[in-house]
Amino acid sequence: MKQMHTRSIALILEGKSLEGGGGAERRFIRLWRYFLDKDISVHLILNDSLFRSGVIVGLFTDNDLQNKTLHIIKYNHPILVSLSMYKIILQNSFNIIHLVLAQKRLLIFYVMLFSQKKYVITHTIAFSAFSCHLKLPWSTLFLSKWIWKKADRIDSLYSGFLQTYAKPLRFENKVEISPCSFSDIKFCSVKRKKALIVFSGRLIEEKNPILFLDALSLLRKKCTQWEAIIAGEGPLENSVKIKLLQDQMDSYVTVQAFGDMSEILSESLIFVSLQKTENYPSQSLLEAMLACNVVIATNVGETSKIIQDGNTGFLIEANPYELSEKLFQLLNNPELVQTTALNGKKFVEKNHTIERFAEYINGFWLTAFKNKRF
């Protein structure tokens, strides 16, 4: 990979927490550290709450506070956060500013940034709703469209974004599709497996946690030698717990949020992802595959980029009966589990590496810089 000696890049992150989520934020924090190790000038600017949650989930240590390429905003008020971010950019003379996601709280920062012509501004789209025709809040869509128009180049995780927004709005020429996502190598740890089924994600309608419980209720009628973990929290948490009590499954299923899933995934056998519109490129799904879990996922969006049905995992429809049958089949077929899990692990290790993504994003930034008309 060629170093960017004349370019200084700032990654912009803002959010509340990385516990139980934040896939895009986690990826770019790991990317910052990767470039740091390669002695490539990439700085990371983020707010304090995001940093502190990153310490909890193991992405930062307090020693990072001494790192000159890490800039932490201590303020919480959106105006002060925006002003502080812009001040850091002025002080460090960055010439490429990469916006990871679009944040309403940073509106003032965006206005100041786009008012200048001296920056190359790039942007990552990692919100699956933009790759399909989901109804979105007007404020989210308005802010995003404004950033898409102003940005010099756009990195999208989803090829579907080209059809839903980029081509209709006529800016597909500045969009590049990421070749992969990636996860942390620590998830390669594999311990002695047990009949543990894992569902990980924010407890919202989009993730289908109730469908998961319906399938487990059906499974229990045929097989009782298993346990399950629902790793997450969210608006449906009370509904999930009530259903567990009603179906008398509270002794089978644990509901709890985890900052670090590596220990659980190293012991679990099956990982289930039931999103309604998109399972690609779920960080927890990649981590599960690295830890030799067999993945069952809904056949939606671009999920088949990772899950090749019957080879690296299994694709199903959003149906509790189909899911319960697949779970029963796997729990009673250790050879199938072992073969599929190993295929999935090898696939992620080959295709979803930080090296591959870093090579891509480095070229993405170089192209944006070369094409900029100052």
Describe the structure.
With 374 residues, this protein is of the alpha/beta class. It has two domains: 9-182 and 353-371, Rossmann fold; 185-351, Rossmann fold, CATH 3.40.50. Helices cover 40% and strands 16% of the residues. The chain contains 13 helices and 13 strands. It has helices at residues 23-37, 48-56, 78-92, 107-114, 138-150, 160-166, 209-220, 237-246, 262-267, 283-290, 320-331, 334-351, 354-371, and strands spanning 9-13, 42-47, 70-73, 96-100, 120-125, 153-156, 175-177, 196-200, 227-231, 253-256, 270-273, 294-298, 314-316. The chain has a seven-stranded parallel β-sheet, with helices on both faces. A six-stranded parallel β-sheet has the order 10-9-8-11-12-13, with helices on both faces. Helix 7 links the parallel strand 8 and strand 9. Helix 7 crosses helix 11 (320-331). The protein starts with 8 loop residues before the first strand and ends with a helix. The model has no long low-confidence stretch (mean pLDDT 92).
